[in-house]
Amino acid sequence: MKKLFLMTVLALASTFAFAQRRVGGTTVQPKIGLNVSTVGDMDWKAGFVFGAELQHQINRKVAVAGGLLYSFQGGKTDDHTWNPSYINIPVTLNYYATRGLALKAGLQPGFMVGKDDARGVNTFDLAVPVGLSYEFDNFVIDGRYNIGVTKVAKHGGDGFTNVLQFTIGYKFKL
Question: The pTM is what?
Fold first, then answer.
């Protein structure tokens, strides 16, 4: 009985392991990770990110992904830490340079939902995510740099939000 159970688990695991790159296939990937963010000339601060991404494999080399992520961002100075939270919607084009290794780029609209001291601040943020990910047995390690393109302050200032983001997730075939 143990051998039958083990063989079944191994068969299912191998099916999932190779499902992520099937042309025309769609996967969902819950993920969690760490942000390191800054705004303008503020210092970098750490925060968490979690959510999920949906990916559709167009061909062997190219996929498109869209996500919904809750992200703790901001920055800090010597006497103040700014901690806004955002709902980010990354949409990326993923190019698989080699098996498991994807280069990513796209657009990410973000909406401030945790308004920690948000007077005079834009609640919409647009970023350009660029990065790479590596997939192994449906586990995905992802590293991105979200380059802010909208100013944070409503009136004056040159501050943009920039975020280094590192996540780990697991892909499930739909």
Answer: 0.84
